[in-house]
Amino acid sequence: MGNLSTKIIAVITAILIFISLYLIFGYARTEGTMLEVQKIFYYHVSAALTVFVAFGVNCVFSLKYLIQRKPDDDLLAVAAAELGVIFCTVALLSGPIWARYAWNTWWNWEARLTSTLVLWLMYVGYFILRSALEGDKRRIYSAVLGIIAYLDVPIVYYAVDIWQGGLHPDRGTKWSLETTMRYTWMVALLALIMLFIFLLIIRYRMKKTEARYEILQQKYLEETSG
Amino acid sequence: MKIAVLASFVVVLALFIFATQVPVDITPEKVSAAVSEAISQSEVPVDEEVVEQAVKNSITILEKGQRTRLKYLAAAYIVIWLVFMLYVLRLGQQQQQLDQRLAQLEQTSNGEE
């Protein structure tokens, strides 16, 4: 992807973020029970759904790497996993602030929260594994872990159905929101997905430059020692 | 890049403050009007001062609740933005270091040629 396309994506992302913030604070109706605090929903839920997209990209490119063994697929998978962890951190940090007001507790070991924390820990483990290994072994083992870790995504998504009686509302709640709230949430979700795409391009390029540097360095060391 | 990220944070923060600092639209005139209306509609004799005090107390409680909610809202959005901002700043730093390392390697290999 060229520099111009990246710049266009960056501009679209920035515009969408500002529009979403305007919609959140200036357009969307204030919910009747939690009032202003409910506005955390727009970025909290969008970040959580972007996590699924990010780890989905990681899973697809991990699988692709295992089949085709192209190092570029591994680099894209790592970049997506890193962003998944960042978005998951956002969801895990904004959630407790909302929970403190809505549920009167910072944390509750209910199904959705616990499975999300497990998801975050698994991808943190993915990076620990990568830092402990080298070369092909690192790429293969982390690709396998990436695919296994993705199995937790449907568990997180369906947690409220599997373990009923949790504090999170039903999956369908966001679709039955009042019109202004639903549109606002959709724009916020689009903004965060665009932000993910933009950061993914940047991170992937950096990973490629790092790989190029490592090859050049190795070549140089071989030449000087030979 | 650092300036752009910091600027975006400041703009978002300013937008947030602007949007959430909308004053509660309850003026003393409105309070007096509401009290007068309540008294005129009441079928039993009421003490105007007591009603006015009760309304004022209710407003204070409402405003306190709103301030608390806005604090939670502000905290959540600041945390969200901080995570993204710190990540982007770290990316910028890493890119800078990588560029330096590449330039250094090129310089070294050119010097030896």
What tags apply to this protein structure?
A: 226 residues, mainly alpha, Four Helix Bundle (Hemerythrin (Met), subunit A), globular, B: 113 residues, 0% strand
Overview of this structure, please?
The complex is a heterodimer of chains A (226) and B (113). Chain A is built from seven helices and no strands. By secondary structure, chain A is mainly alpha-helical. Chain A has one domain (3-29, 37-221): Up-down Bundle (Four Helix Bundle (Hemerythrin (Met), subunit A)), CATH 1.20.120. In chain A, α2 (41-68) runs parallel beside α7. The mean pLDDT of chain A is 91. With 113 residues, chain B is mainly α. The longest helix of chain B has 65 residues, at 48-112.
Offer a quick outline of the entry.
The complex is a heterodimer of chains A (226) and B (113). With 226 residues, chain A is mainly α.
Largest sheet of chain B: none
Percent range for β-strand residues of chain B: under 5%
Helix content of chain A: over 70%
Q: How many domains of chain A, as an integer?
A: 1
Radius of gyration from the alpha-carbon trace of chain B, in angstroms? 29 Å
What separation lies between the terminal Cα atoms of chain A? 38 Å
| Main β sheet profile of chain A | none
This entry's quaternary arrangement is heterodimer
Question: What is the mean pLDDT of chain B?
Answer: 79
Largest interface, with Cβ-Cβ < 8 Å?
A: A-B, 39 and 33 residues
Query: What's the total count of β strands of chain A?
Result: 0
What is the beta-strand fraction of chain A? under 5%
Give the count of helical stretches of chain A. Answer: 7
Low-confidence stretches of chain B: none
Look at the helices and sheets of chain A and give the structural class: mainly alpha
CATH architecture of chain A: Up-down Bundle
**What's the CATH class label of chain A?**
Mainly Alpha
- End-to-end separation of chain B in angstroms reads 35 Å
Average residue pLDDT of chain A: 91
Structural class based on helices, strands and sheet pairing of chain B? mainly alpha
